[in-house]
Amino acid sequence: xxxxxxxxxxxxxxxxxxxxxxxxxxxxxxxxxxxxxxxxxxxxxxxxxxxxxxxxxxxxxxxxxxxxxxxxxxxxxxxxxxxxxxxxxxxxxxxxxxxxxxxxxxxxxxxxxx
Length: 114
Description:
The protein is mostly helical. The protein has 4 helices and no strands. The radius of gyration is 17 Å and the shape is flat. The protein starts with a helix and ends with a helix.
């Protein structure tokens, strides 16, 4: 495409660092502390949101709009399971099952398009 690889790479890393800093500041303001372990264990949640939003784990396809829809779907399902008085471990298992179902659906749709 004729993009300068070095400059593009530095720009992407700078943007990623900026977004990480803004997320850290927002988390510190929300939690009223700057504890670096505040978001430990949220990796499954992030992956689930992105996959539910339609981004392929193999890369190459996805959108910000889909990720925002994934957040809305995930938070709705999380609130339903949380307020149904299930133990925290079952909520995590249900989110993992949902993630597995969406990955299987993506694979099925990918096979049909190929």
